[in-house]
Structures
1.
Amino acid sequence: MRPPIRHRFHQVDVFTTQPLKGNPLAVVHAAGDLDDATFAAFARWTNLSETTFLLPPTQAGAAAGADYRVRIFTPGGELPFAGHPTLGSCWAWLAAGGQPRDSGVVVQECGVGLVRVRRGEKGQLAFAAPPLRRSGPLDEALLARIVAALGLAPGAVLRHEWLDNGPGWCGVMLHSAAEVLAVRPDMTQLAGIKLGLLAAQPAGAETQFEVRAFVPDLGVPEDPVTGSLNAGIAQWLIGAGLAPASYVAAQGTVLGRAGRVHVQQQGADIWVGGDVVACIDGEVTL
């Protein structure tokens, strides 16, 4: 058995300017000496929605322009892509001295390929939403399961859509943000489903949409703030003319968080971003 090794470690809060109000992420640097079993065990130990491990890009990734590679683990398994781990990992990589090839854009390699992350003038980071792997309305049997799990009345669902950009999100829109916040789902009935719930905010609200995310199969009954889901939602809503080209979504309200996800369409790209703040900066022994 090899001796334990100390690794640079960050724990950050993503999609917030105030620590403890966003979605936390654990980041292990220079993790090339660790195996998959250790990745999974540490993710279970942190018990956060995601824990990431920074690695050099693969040969193919480097040739395509990647600056670093990330492996993303939940307590229940690995993800090919996730939004708040993308922003938090990029922030940690830069904080540890990472130098991108292009000063304006960092290129991350992950399970879905290459993801571009740009740095804004005010310090926010934003990733370019990856293409949807599946879109279109949910089938009626799946929708009926979701409606039952959420305890919704008939007619409560305004719209629904597949939003799969890697994790496999289903999107369900209700008539009001108040209805979204009132939902108390039966997690056992959501087995096998990764669900995003959303609705427009009332006129005059600080944000334009209220969002919630449920992923019980990955050990995360409700995720505080979810970049991949918001990326899929943005592609759906902007593409269908249901949202402006620039808006802010709130998430995590029911959990006592104040996540803010900033969405902006520029040309063919939809950028999904927010602030990142450090909570822990040190070393971890693995």
2.
Amino acid sequence: MGSGHRTPRPLGEWFEVTSRWSRPVARQNRVLDAESAWTEDGKLVFWVENQGVWLWAVDPTGDDPEVYDRENTPGQPWQPTGVALSVFLVHVAVFEAIMGAQAGASAAWITSQRLDQVLSPLSPIPGAAWRWPCPMHQLYAGDGLLAMAGPNYGAGETADTAAYREVFIAGRNLSAVSYLAKIDGVDWDWASWRQ
């Protein structure tokens, strides 16, 4: 990578494959190319949240190193995700597909009961529990569906005590997400079937 960095194999493969696509894969957050990546506290930073508030990095050695993440605040320690870079990049592709979907919906304040209905045709993706945007967020997949959901909390609450959840769900097409319009009591912030 730039400035003398070695590109871990999975990241090199990511750039090789995604360079062939007509649309950028990462449209929400940024996967850093060889010239943009940097080393911080001994870790090679390779993915940055779109406002710069969260970072993901790997050790600059090894063929398929483990991914670490942290809030982009001075003094915050890197935390291991327990996921190898090759697997994490699949999670990145899932997340970016959700955020860039043309068919889908999102709700910032949804009850756990309604969230269970939204996620009923999906299953958690193994190893895809994230600390960002806050702890206890999870990626999900189903037949023609992808989602990310987790706690959404206000003052005085934590991820564990949050009364509400947030969800972003994407479908291969409008028919894949048509069941969402039938779930009563959800105040959708965005819903592709209303456009």
